[in-house]
Amino acid sequence: MGDRFFPNEMPDFVAEGTTVSGGATGDSLSNLLSLPYKTLSEKLKTSALDLKETVVRETWGLRGKRVQDYTLYTGALGTAYLLFKAYQVTKNENDLQSCSDIIKACDSASKDSGRVTFICGRAGVCALGAVIAKHSGDERLQAHYLTKFKQIRFPSDLPNELLYGRAGFLWACSFLNKHIGKDTISTTRMRAVIDEIIKSGKRLAGKGRCPLMYEWHGKKYWGAAHGLAGIVHVLMDMELKPDEVEDVKGTLHYMIKNRFPSGNYPSSEGSESDRLVHWCHGAPGVTLTLVKAAEVLGDKEFLQAAVDAGEVVWKRGLLKRVGICHGISGNTYVFLALYRLTGKVEYLYRAKAFASFLSDRALELISEGKMHGGDRPFSLFEGVGGMAHLFLDMAEPSDASFPAYEI
Question: In terms of CB atoms within 10 Å, which of 42, 135, 291, 351 comes out highest?
Answer without folding.
Answer: 291
